[in-house]
C-alpha cells in the first residue's frame, strides 16, 4: 500500500474530518443508498484516508456515485462525516489539470424536459474545478 | 512566637529529582519562627516520622511544616505523628512540593524556587495556627436505602442482617426494579423471578426492614451520622395494612384500558392494579389519573368488592420524618427513549421493540404469556434482527444517545438470541454488532455458545435503516467483513437501547449534595479505592446508579456498600472536623447572607444583648454556627459582607499571610 502523506493531510484539511474518530461500525455504509454503485464505500473512504491509502480512491468511479445525500453524516454515531471525505477526495481529483468531470460544452446535450436545471447546475459545480 | 520545625521530603527521586531539597531546607531555616530544618529521603516512613517526633521533643516545637506530597496523601499521617509527640495535630501544615511543584516543573531551578515559596507560605500560616480540638457527634443507628431494585434490596438485607434497622424508599408500588421484569438472566440462564422474589420476600419479612413503596425522598438535611430526611408516601387510595392483595378489585375495576407500565405498555391494566403476582408489598394501588371515582366521583366498584375494606378514596399523601446515620443511593437505570432513532422505525412499527420489551414478550408472566409473538399481528416471527449499541458509544449525537458503552447489552443480546434459537429452531436470528464485549466470568463462552451451538448469525456492522413494508421490516445493514450491504426482510427487530440513570437521580443528588458526572451517574469518592462511597460523607452508592452494571456486579457492589454502612453505624460517635466556621458576633449585622449560602443548614440566628459604649444595652440579631453540622466548606466566609465569618484553621488572616509570603 502506498502511503501518500501529503494528499492525506490535504484531504483531512479540506474535509475538516478527523478520520481517527471512526470506530468502524459501518453504519454509514449500512445507510448509503449508493452502496452497490460504489467500489469503495463510505466507511472505506474514511478508513483509507486514515491509513493514507489515497491513490485508489482518487482514481475510483465511486467519487461520482456518491449522491451527496448526507445520510451517512446524519447517522454516523461518532460524528465523522464520511460524505465530507468523499467530497474532499473528489475535489482533490478534479483539481488536477484537465481532470474536470464535466465540461461546459457537454451541458447543452444533457438538457431535456425531465432533468431539473438545478441538478445540472449543481453537478457542474461539483464536478468542475 | 511559634517554634517551627521544617521537614523537607525527597520522596525518593519524585521530589528530589527536580527540587534541590537541601537548598530548600537551608533557605527555609531563616524564615520567621523556624528553629529547626531538615531533609530526609522518605518523611512518611517510620524513620522519617521518628525524626519528626524527636525534633518536636528536642526543640520544643510548637508547629511543624512538612514539605512533601499533597495533604490529601499524608496530612493525616503527619498529624498523627505530631499527636504522638504531644503536639496538637492542627499545628501541622503541609507544603505540597510534589504534585504542585516537582511533578509540574521540569528544571531544578524553577522547581527549587517554587518549593521555597510554597514552604514560606506554609510557615507564614503555621505561625498563625492555634491548637484545635475536634468535636464529636452521635450516630443514628439506622440506614436509608433509596431505590428498591436488586441493588437496594441486597444492600438493605446485608445491613439489616448485621442488626441495624433499614428503611427502603421505592417510588414504584413494588420493590424489585428492572430485574423483576427480566425473563432469564445471563450467564447461567436462571429465571430472574426465581432468584429475585425470595429476596423480596426476605425484605418484606425482615423485622429490621421497613419498606416505603410508592414513596419518594423530598428533603434531606443534616450530615453523616445525623441525616434528617422527609419521605413522601404518595396516596395509593388503598390502606396498605388492610389490603390482603387478593386482587378482587383489580378484576372488577371497569377502567381496564390503561397501558400497563410493568409490561412497557404492551398490554393494559385496570385503574386499580398490583404490578405483578409476586409484588412486595402485595398491595393494590389506584392510578389517580385513570380512576373514575377519583376523577369524577362516579364508580366506587373496588370499594364495594373489597372484602377487607381497604379502599380509601380520601387518602392523602403522607409525610414522614426520620433520622438516619447513613444513606445509600440505589436508584438504578432506565433504557433511553428510542423516539429520536427514526432510522430504526421504532415509532412507526410495533414490531420494532427494545430489549426490555423483548424480555416481557418472552416472560411467562408477560403480555403474550411467554410466547414470542409479533406485537402487531400476534404472528410467530421467523426472521429476527437484533441491533446492538443503539444509542450507546454515540459521540456525535448527545441529544440522541450516550457516549459511553452501556456494558450489559452485548451479553443480554447474546442471551436473547440464544434463547430464541433454543425455543424456536425455525427462526433465523441475526445480531448486528460493532464489537462484542464479554469481559466477565463465563461471558465469552456464553456468547460463543450462541454462535457455535445455537447458530445465531453474528454480523460485524451496524444496521443503517429499518423500513416497514407490508408486514415485513426491510433491514439494510453493513457486513463489514464480507464488505457487503445486506438487505434482510425481518419480522421482528430488537434494539439494544443504551441505558441511562433514572431521571430522578439528578434532583436527588442535589438534595444529598452528592456529585454526579455529566451523564448523571453518581460519582464515587475514588474510582478505584473508594468505589461505593460518594464524596459526601455518609452517602453510599449501590448498583447501576453509579454506572452500567449487570446483576452479579450490582450485587457485589450492594454488599460492599452495606459493609461501609455497617462500619459507620457500628461507631457510637464520629469525630468531627474542627475546621469549622464561627462568626465574630461583634462584627455580625445579622444580614442572613451566610445562612442563605450554607449548603448544610449549619447557621441559625439568635437575638443577643450587647452593651453599648454609652452603657445602654441593645438587642442585635447575630449568626451562630452549629459546629456539628458545619462541614467547613467556607461558603459563608466569602459571602459575609461584614467580614464577621471566619473558618478555624483557614482564617482570613492565615490565608492572607500565605499570599503575602508568596508575593514577598
Ligand atoms: C433488557 C435487559 C436485560 C438484562 N438482562 C440481564 C441479565 O440477563 N443478567 C444480568 O446480570 N443483568 C441483566 N440486566 C441488567 C440488570 O437489569 C441490572 O444489572 C439491575 O437491574 C441493576 O439493578 P439496580 O437495582 O441497580 O437498578 P434498577 O433495577 O433500575 O432498580 C432501581 C430501583 O430504584 C427505584 N428508584 C429510582 N429512582 C428512585 C427515587 N428517586 N426514589 C425511589 N426509588 C427510586 C426504581 O423504581 C427501581 O425500582 C439486564 C438489563 C436490561 C435492560
Ligand atoms: S458510521 Fe462513522 S464511525 Fe461508523 S464506520 Fe462510518 S464513519 Fe466510521
Ligand atoms: S452522502 Fe454519499 S457516501 Fe454518504 S450515504 Fe449519501 S451517497 Fe452514500
Ligand atoms: S455492551 Fe455491547 S452492545 Fe452494549 S453498548 Fe457496549 S458494545 Fe454496544
Ligand atoms: S463553612 Fe459556613 S457555609 Fe460552609 S458548612 Fe460551615 S457554616 Fe455552612
Q: What brief labels describe this structure?
A:
heterodimer, A: 129 residues, mainly alpha, 2 domains, globular, B: 664 residues, alpha/beta, Rossmann fold, FAD/NAD(P)-binding domain, 5-stranded parallel beta sheet, binds flavin-adenine dinucleotide, binds iron/sulfur cluster
Structure commentary:
The complex is a heterodimer of chains A (129) and B (664). The longest helix of chain A is centred in the C-terminal third of the chain and has 13 residues, at 82-94. Chain A has two domains: 4-96, Alpha-helical ferredoxin (Fumarate Reductase Iron-sulfur Protein, Chain B, domain 2, Orthogonal Bundle); 101-129. In chain A, 48% of the residues lie in helices and 0% in strands. Chain A has helices at 5-15, 27-31, 42-50, 55-58, 71-75, 82-94, 107-110, 117-127. The two termini of chain A are 28 Å apart. In chain A, helix 3 (42-50) packs across helix 6 (82-94). Chain A has 129 residues and is mostly helical. The mean pLDDT of chain A is 91. Chain A is built from eight helices and no strands. Chain B is α/β, with parallel strands linked by helices. Chain B has five domains: 4-126, Rossmann fold, CATH 3.40.50; 143-232 and 318-332 and 503-569, FAD/NAD(P)-binding domain (3-Layer(bba) Sandwich); 248-305, no CATH class; 334-500, FAD/NAD(P)-binding domain (3-Layer(bba) Sandwich), CATH 3.50.50; 581-648, Alpha-Beta Plaits, CATH 3.30.70.3270. Chain B is globular, with a radius of gyration of 31 Å. The longest helix of chain B has 19 residues, at 108-126. Chain B has a five-stranded parallel β-sheet with strand order 10-7-6-18-29, covered by helices on one side. A five-stranded parallel β-sheet of chain B has the order 20-27-21-22-23. Helix content of chain B is 28%, strand content 25%. Chains A and B meet through helix 2 of A and strand 24 and strand 25 of B. One iron/sulfur cluster is lined by residues 22-28, 42-43, 46, 76, 78, 80, 82 of chain A.
